[in-house]
Amino acid sequence: MTSPPQSSARPPAIPSTRETTILGSELAYTTAGTGPAVLLVHGLGGDRRTWRHLIGPLATGHTVIAVDLPGHGQSGPPAGDFSLGAHATALRDLLITLGHGSATVVGHSLGGGIALQFAYQFPERTDRLVLISSGGLGPEVTPVLRAATLPGAEVVVAGMALLPRWLTRRVVPVLSLLPGVAARQDAGPLAESLHQLGRVTHRRAFIRTARSVLDWRGQAVSATSHLQLLADLPVMVAWGDHDATIPPGHHRAVADLLPNPTVVEITGAGHYPHETAVDQILPALLAFLAGSTAFQYSEDRWRHLLARSPLT
């Protein structure tokens, strides 16, 4: 009797939630799968649950690590400050603690700015860079985030966080009628982010992180002068063409400055394409991971790139 053929497909990876203590501060993360590391970095006021639709599919061929940034989600406050550099260092320390020499770093919004900072500070630990609706690419940003830098912002945020999710989901589409405030498609993710700010520790982390990268005029930190250092690094830039939080023009301009980027503009998506347009961004991300070669750091090459004139 002939035995039935065995399927070669891998069983689905089961994510597990874990915590680790680094320099006295707890970092919470979800991990799944085996293989080259992919580190997922959420945006301002969010947490690792924003990646719930991507973790399983990515884990079929990779070790996926979705982390709560210090002060966010279930992670404790940072040992130091809330700057991009401090967040990037916390991610470096997490990779070392988990035994990964390098990773593909995927960042959304603020997480994109942190991913850029990570690649700048730790190029030898960066395999690839994926920027989704990334911050740090130009000054313009929604007035809602600029307002977070003003005096009394924490009181306002506390009031908004107490609104029921169903009410927030209804308010966002109304706000979307105002230019540059919010995209209607983002009502669900925004409601979830606001709900997370109901805890005073999360609100303080949100305000302090926002003030480290923003002022009343917009984004105060830019990575564009460092883009020349990414010349040899595989980079994917993805955004929604209806993003009202960060102008799509930032991503188009940066893609034009990079030598060979993978560009994914998602029609009809807002600021959270990894949540609201999974069927479009996931195939592109998987193809990018499969079709690119991990970056190999060379100090001689890095020295050459540092000596070049900045991109304009």
Compact description:
InterPro entries: AB_hydrolase_1, AB_hydrolase_fold, AB_hydrolase_sf. This protein has 312 residues and is an alpha/beta fold. The chain has helices at 52-58, 84-98, 110-121, 143-147, 153-161, 165-175, 187-196, 200-213, 248-257, 273-276, 278-291, 299-307, and strands at 16-22, 25-32, 37-41, 63-67, 103-108, 126-132, 214-215, 218-219, 235-240, 262-266.
Which overall shape is indicated by the principal axes computed on the Cα atoms? globular
Mean pLDDT: 84
CATH superfamily of the domain at 16-140 and 221-307: Alpha/Beta hydrolase fold, catalytic domain
Q: Rg, please?
A: 19 Å
Predict the CATH topology of the domain at 16-140 and 221-307.
Rossmann fold
Largest sheet: 8 strands, mixed
The unreliable regions are 1-8
Number of DSSP E strands: 10
Helix count equals 12
CATH class bucket of the domain at 16-140 and 221-307: Alpha Beta
Question: Helices and strands: which structural class?
Answer: alpha/beta
N- and C-termini, Cα separation: 70 Å
Q: How helix-rich are the residues, as a percent range?
A: 25-40%
Q: What's the quaternary structure here?
A: single chain
Strand-and-helix sequence, N→C? EEEHEHEHEHHHHHEEEHEHHH
| CATH architecture term of the domain at 16-140 and 221-307 | 3-Layer(aba) Sandwich
Major sheet: arrangement of strands: 1-2-4-3-5-6-9-10
Which range does the strand content fall in? Answer: 15-25%
